[in-house]
Each structure stands twice: as C-alpha cells, then as structure tokens.
Design goal:
The chain is about 30% helix and about 20% strand. By secondary structure, it is of the alpha/beta class. The longest helix is centred in the middle third of the chain and has 14 residues.
Length: about 200
C-alpha cells in the first residue's frame, strides 16, 4: 500500500476572482506566494517523492516549498473548455439552472463545452495511480483533489463535497493497485516546524 499526500497549489489572481482556471497556465499571485511561504510539510512526509502538475501554479508551489518535482501530466487540472476564465457564479446566473443541468451539473459527468468531465479526469488519473509504488507528495489542483476524493469515498459530486479542498491543507490517501482509500483529510500546513530547504 502506497501513501499519497495531495496538496492544492497556492492562490492565483483567478482564484481570488473565482474564475475557472482549468488548464489555463496562470501563475501564483504575490499573496499566493506569501501563502505558500508560510506552509511547512509535516515531518512524517519528509522522505516522500515529489511530483507536480505541469502547470506553473503547481510547480511554483513545489519550488517555494523547497523541491524540484518530477512533472506528472496526469495531474493537470480538469479542462473547463470554453468556460475557462469565466466567473463561476456569474456563469450559473447567466446560463440558468436548465442549461447547467443539460451539461450534467451536479454529477461526475458534468462537462463544460469543449472541456472534460470529472469522470474524464478520473480516467486520466487512473494509469498514474495504478503505477504509484513509492510514498508521494503531489502538488495539484482542486479538480484533481475532488476527482481522487470521489474515487476514494464514492462521492458522486452531487451537491457540495463533504470536505473543503482549501489552500494550505494536505489530504492523505492510500493507493493499492490503483484503488484509492481515504487516510487523513485536511492536514494543516501552517502548524509545523519550519521546513528544511
């Protein structure tokens, strides 16, 4: 059984504006960099290997935490297609409930126009999860966290998730032959000894 610690990247300007980032390669904001500088990884995970989404907000987060990660393309955020850059709440209001439901809102099969569904993202992640053999820290995205949490918990992405995937928290899973189970969720990254760089 392999341990997998998932950490969401630091905040970007689009996060602050509640814009859908998807695979748009936005950098950390200055406040996001300061946020990550305040984090430290609990000592229990010091010997884990580091991997990252190829998007710069994730790789920059890893580097601020003192690591040059291996790049894992499967960890790239879910594509929001034509909706990338739009504000989520404004989009819901402008489209209306019927249009959102037509796209499969509130399910694993929710698919933005020319984008991916959470189920597509899970399918992209499965081969990587199946080959995972060493304890690993992965710097990733909210959509990736939700997709892996859904695999582990059986949550169908209907309604709000049972936990929040905030910046500044890590989530620990067990992975065995591609099967993911929850170990410990919402581990704070701000209450530990200063990290070693």
């Amino acid at each position: 059984m392999t341990l997998l610690l998932l950490i969401r990247h630091g905040e970007t300007a689009w996060n602050a504006e509640r814009r859908l980032q998807g695979q748009t390669d936005t950098p950390l904001s200055s406040s996001g960099r300061s946020m990550v500088e305040s984090w430290s990884i609990p000592e229990d995970y010091n010997q884990f290997e580091w991997v990252s989404s190829p998007l710069q907000r994730a790789t920059e987060t890893a580097k601020i935490l003192g690591h040059v990660p291996m790049i894992e393309p499967a960890l790239r955020e879910m594509s929001w297609g034509r909706w990338e850059g739009l504000n989520w709440k404004e989009l819901q209001v402008s489209l209306g409930l019927e249009a959102m439901l037509a796209h499969g809102a509130d399910s694993l099969d929710f698919r933005p126009p020319q984008g991916e569904s959470p189920r597509d993202l899970q399918n992209r992640l499965r081969p990587w999860l199946e080959q995972l053999k060493k304890p690993t820290i992965a710097i990733c995205h909210k959509g990736v966290l939700q997709a892996i949490y859904a695999l582990a918990s059986g949550w169908q992405m209907s309604g709000k998730p049972p936990i929040k995937f905030k910046h500044g928290a890590a989530h620990l899973f067990h992975v065995e032959s591609g099967i993911v189970t929850e170990q410990k969720m919402s581990i704070a990254l701000t209450n530990h000894c200063a990290r070693k760089v």
